[in-house]
Amino acid sequence: MRTALVVGTGLIGTSAALALAQRGVTVHLADHDPQQARTAAALGAGTDEAPEGPVDLAIVAAPPAHVAGVLADAMRRGVARGYLDVASVKGGPRRELEALGLDLAAYIGTHPMSGREKSGPLAATGDLFEGRPWVLTPTRDTDTEVLNLALELVSHCRAVPVVMDADAHDRAVALVSHMPHLVSSMVAARLEHAEETAVRLCGQGIRDVTRIAASDPGMWIDILSANPGPVADLLSDVAADLDDTVRALRALQSSDDDKRRAGSTGVEAMLRRGNAGQVRVPGKHGSAPRAYETVVVLIDDQPGQLARIFADAGQAGVNIEDVRIEHATGQQAGLVQLMVEPRAAAGLREALRERGWALRQ
Amino acid sequence: MRTALVVGTGLIGTSAALALAQRGVTVHLADHDPQQARTAAALGAGTDEAPEGPVDLAIVAAPPAHVAGVLADAMRRGVARGYLDVASVKGGPRRELEALGLDLAAYIGTHPMSGREKSGPLAATGDLFEGRPWVLTPTRDTDTEVLNLALELVSHCRAVPVVMDADAHDRAVALVSHMPHLVSSMVAARLEHAEETAVRLCGQGIRDVTRIAASDPGMWIDILSANPGPVADLLSDVAADLDDTVRALRALQSSDDDKRRAGSTGVEAMLRRGNAGQVRVPGKHGSAPRAYETVVVLIDDQPGQLARIFADAGQAGVNIEDVRIEHATGQQAGLVQLMVEPRAAAGLREALRERGWALRQ
After folding, report:
1. Residue A223 shares a structural domain with residue A139
2. B314 to A304: CB separation less than 8 angstroms, yes or no
3. Measured between CB atoms, which of A194, A250, A358 is closest to B280?
4. What family is this (chains A, B) (predicted)?
């Protein structure tokens, strides 16, 4: 790939442009707001002048609702050899393009799974996609050359290519992202009018469950509007489990021993299915998070305490896989949970104790 | 308080005994399994010999189902001036004691909000409760002397006392702990039979939402069996929101513009209520987590990298409030999110850049 055109210079488009430009590709930048394209160009993402002839790859990074229209326009004008979009949903845009009667051999739908807490070109960075999955949805009609252009883009962005069917992709992101997002919002919503004394009892559990409920509703309306079917199907499945669980809990209130036993069995089945699903969530390096052992250290709230813990762990040759800091409300002391490979835990405990740290357990 | 009796030497009982013993209180230890009491004594939590006369405070730390029986027995034998339990639910035990016809002036129900990933005396530590809320549920009948004995225990354990009505407590823990736990299990359960390709797309969002679904079902059955009513009520409220949201998503699939607009409004209302609830979740020092600014640093997977980051932050005089490490599946590089006070963020960014770190944004 020598030349590319990025249409839509928000966070995703500008980040991809930066990665390509950094690897020597000539990148042209376009946006319905020319000022956005100028900003992206000023950041070093390419030029906001139009290409003189067709480029190798056109990357459409427009908002979901406009993707098909922008793609159709670009394809009719023949601005590139290959075309892709980066929208977070893949079935809809493809069907819209088919309905417009376009030849889709030169098109491939893609979705980089990057975090999107920020938006706009100023938040862009050439390493936004580094190490993240980037889904490609070729069909049997997709030109191999176009698939290879997409793979080259993914490689330049140092992302991990994952090939999937478009509809399977939409069901997958509904499962691992859209459904959990709405459920997190529903748990958080219960706190809206809760008494302050109750809210004071929040611990790390509810903090984790509700973290993503802080996201921007505008962006999520766009995402969910493009994928309502699969998300509704999954929420209906959750609703069925919820109804069963409410029934089981009501049975636990019964004075009848058999009913209470049945209630207990029902609740336990739900908890065990939760266990079975949770171990499948990949942690670092694709392993399950439970594969790590946790070493808990008590700290004061002084700058430098964490530095000393990590320096001491480093000197002991131990790699910290994950870390979590827990502070109680209103207190100046806290706990640091260090997650390490099980074979490294004993050595880390010994090293930290030797250096004077207070460990739990 | 000079003397105490701990009945039930599991994690909670032994940890409280350790804290009291460390502060000079003479602690007697009892358990229905004498070996457990001997183990606790060997750890320095007190003596497993019975007291010769009444002690100042009896702390009943038996499993929820046995709390009322053990308390009633202790009160009838007159083993102490004051009695408390530490069960995670408070309405039930009080009603059971009342039904047994006991005078409850000498009793106070309490609940230390400590983490309980481990169990048994060997996991106990004198600082288990440090900085954590410890709920006390006195009534107008509770002797002031007994309330003060409980406050002294909480103080010795360096926990933060919170006074609540027993039933309000049970509704509060249903809200901030029991309901979120079951909902987390339900989200995780959807992954049990998911395709491997879909599971590969999991990111930090679902990882956080499902983390607590990894907990031990046996322990959670005990907790939920003691508080089924308030949990069922809250899950029913969530079920109503879930049904509304499924309907809104189905409306988004409509070809009718008005229906789609109504669907969008419905989904947005849910997301905004989630925002409003999420900001109430206390972070460190009782502030909302969103009050922090995040600085994102790219790291390689080498021991010592985190130590260097924290050392560099410490040298710049910046206190890291929270930290999160994110790794992509199968990759050797990752991102470290450092949460700091907004006024410290610019200085931290500058300091880290000067020392050669790659920052996002």
Report:
1. no
2. yes
3. A194
4. Belongs to the prephenate/arogenate dehydrogenase family.
Tens of pLDDT, residues A175-231: 999 999 999 999 999 999 999 989 999 988 999 999 999 988 988 998 999 999 999
With respect to residue B283, please indicate whether it lies within any of the assigned structural domains. no
Mutate to test the interface with A, among B244, B281, B315, B321 (most CBs of A within 10 A): B281
**A97 and A232 belong to one structural domain:** no
Please judge whether A322 and B320 are an interchain contact, meaning their C-beta atoms are less than 8 angstroms apart. no
Q: Please write the tens of the pLDDT for every residue from B36-65.
A: 999 999 999 999 999 999 999 999 999 888
**Alpha carbons B340 and A303: distance in angstroms, whole number:** 11
Confidence of residue A289 (pLDDT cuts 50, 70, 90): very low
CATH number at residue A306: 3.30.70.260
Chosen from B178, B210, B254, B293 to mutate, greatest number of chain A CBs within 10 A: B210
Structure tokens at A196: 């302050």
Reading the block at residue B318, the tokens are 């910046």
Question: Is the minimum CB–CB distance between A53 and chain B shorter than 8 Å?
Answer: no
Residues B160 and B223 in one domain: no
Residue B136, classed as helix, strand or coil, is: strand
Distances (CA, A) of A66 to A142, A224, B322, B357: 22, 15, 38, 37
Give the residue carrying structure tokens 């790659």: B358
The b/e string for A86-105 (b: 16+ C-beta within 10 A; e otherwise) is bbbbbbbbbeebeeeebebe
**Residues A140 and A274 placed together within one structural domain of the fold:** no
pLDDT band at A117 (very low <50, low <70, confident <90, very high): low
Supply the DSSP string of B27-71, one letter for each residue: EEEE-SSHHHHHHHHHTTS-B-SPPSS-EEEEEE---GGGHHHHH
A323's tokens: 């870390």
Q: For residue range A326-349, what is the model confidence (pLDDT) as tens digits?
A: 654 445 567 788 888 888 888 899
> Which among A173, A221, A277 is the nearest to B213, CB-wise?
A277
- Provide, rounded to the nearest whole percent, the portion of chain A with pLDDT above 90: 68
User: Residues 96 to 125 of B: which have CB under 8 A from any A CB?
Assistant: 113, 115, 117-118, 123, 125
Distance CA(B39)–CA(B45), nearest Å, equals 9
Distance of alpha carbon A138 from alpha carbon A109, whole angstroms: 7
Contact A177 B201 (CB under 8 A): yes
* Number of domains observed in the structure of chain A: 3
Considering only CA atoms, which of B35, B9, B32, B31 is closest in space to residue B21? B9
Determine whether B310 is exposed, middle or buried from the number of CB atoms within 10 Å of its CB (0-12, 13-18, 19+): buried
Q: Which domain holds residue A74?
A: 3-164
Residue of chain A with shortest Cα separation from B11: A361
Mean pLDDT score across all residues of chain A:
89
CB environment A242-253: b (16+ within 10 A), e (fewer): beebbebbebbe
In this structure, the number of other CB atoms found within 10 A of the CB of residue A65 comes to: 13
Question: For the whole model, what pTM was predicted?
Answer: 0.77
Our measurement of the distance from residue A42's CA atom to the centroid of its chain's CA atoms, rounded to an integer in Å, reads 28
For residues A115 and A138, state if they share a domain: yes
Q: How many residues does chain B have?
A: 361
pLDDT, one tens digit per residue, over A52-94 is 999 999 999 998 889 999 999 999 999 999 999 999 999 988 9
